[in-house]
Amino acid sequence: MTLVGYARVSSTGQDLGVQLDKLKGCDKVFKEKRSGVDAGRPELKRCLEYLREGDTLLVSKIHRLARSTSDLYRIVSLLAEKGVSFKVIDDPSIDTSSRTGKLVMGILALIAEFENDIRRERQMDGIAKAKERGVRFGRKSLLLPETVKEIRTLREAGTTVPEIIRRTGLSKASVYRALAISTH
Q: Which of the residues 10, 11, 35, 141 is marked catalytic?
């Protein structure tokens, strides 16, 4: 059984010293200076890949590992699938090798699911309200009526499709789509 530590501070101005002192008993420690909001945490990724069945991942504080409850649950679920325990030094109740720790993680999982449902509901409400106000989603159409008219005029004057593509900067598909639009 290997004890693996993970330490993270949010910016280069912060010091990892306090966390590293708490992780002194670990066989290996992964450390990085990145924001927890930054999804690209290469040392965390390396740490998770390094861990093997029977290992234990230690962090000094729970917020050093995850960006949100749902992120924490995702990471801890991955650890459980690998047969890896998870412990938080400053919060002994979070220890997935114990029954109580598993209970705490189960409660956190429910909170994470609840947070996701609320976020999704708010997002859908916002989208519905925006649609009511006439907001259109997606990329703006490049085929405006004047562009379609220009393409038709060029084509009727004998301009080839490749030349129209060059002049307008549109794709071949867009040019043919413009030519296919009904004029009535």
A: 10
* Tokens at 83, concatenated: 């047969």
Establish whether 10 is a catalytic residue: yes
Segments in the chain below pLDDT 70: 12-13, 35-39, 182-184
CA distance 104 to 34: 27
Whole-number pLDDT of residue 148: 92
DSSP lists the bridge partners of residue 8 as 32
Query: Measured between alpha carbons, how far is 57 from 95 in angstroms, rounded to an integer?
Result: 10
Other beta carbons within 10 angstroms of residue 97's beta carbon come to 11
